[in-house]
Automatic annotation (TrEMBL):
Keywords per UniProt: Signal
Protein name: Heme-binding protein
Signal peptide start and end residues: 1-25
Listed InterPro entries: GlcG_carb_metab_protein (IPR052517), PduO/GlcC-like (IPR005624), PduO/GlcC-like_sf (IPR038084)
Pfam family, one: HbpS-like
């Protein structure tokens, strides 16, 4: 390999090393946002299931991050298979549409269906569900994820359980 070719190969490494200096090494990457820590996500999901089970509802709890990626999925004892999909889709709806349309629970999108003539088209987006049952986790006034519940006999009951789970951990999220 010639010296010129070797120098050309080393140039990108030099540029990368120059960009990552001590001044920039500790900086928060652009686009980064805080996420619900795993231990709090798990605790919130467990609390939501506990509240639902105390009312005789067999549910699944799903916590998603702001990318709509599941962080925790807990299927309660005797919860049927469809409860996982509905809990995920409700939480996904909150994190993907809530910030745009100013709602922090999937009941907000459910209500929007009644007043916004365009909302029915949004409900056709993959993984969006126009039913109550999910509540956002908030930190420093910003949404950082959502907890969705599926399986109670009515989304309003699912949402009560989701809210109980979020409330259990919200004081431990950065305010």
């Amino acid at each position: 390999m010639t010296r010129l070719r070797l120098a050309q190969l080393c140039l990108p490494v030099t540029l990368i090393a120059t960009l990552v200096t001590p001044a920039t090494a500790g900086a928060v990457p652009q686009g980064y946002s805080y996420s619900v820590p795993l231990d709090l996500a798990l605790e919130a999901a467990r609390e939501a299931i506990r509240v639902c089970e105390s009312n005789g509802y067999r549910v699944t709890a799903t916590v998603v991050d702001m990318a709509g990626t599941p962080k925790v999925v807990l299927r309660g004892d005797k919860a049927t298979v469809h409860t996982g999909e509905s809990s995920f889709r409700k939480a996904f709806t909150v994190v993907t549409l809530g910030p745009e349309f100013n709602f922090d629970a999937s009941s907000g999108f459910f209500q929007m269906q009644k007043t916004n003539p365009f909302a029915s088209q949004l409900a056709t987006v993959h993984n969006v569900m126009a039913l109550p049952g999910a509540v956002a986790f908030m930190s420093k006034g910003e949404m950082i994820g959502a907890l969705g519940i599926g399986g109670a006999p009515g989304g309003d009951k699912d949402e009560v359980c989701a809210r109980a789970g979020v409330n259990k951990v919200k004081s431990r999220l950065p305010q």
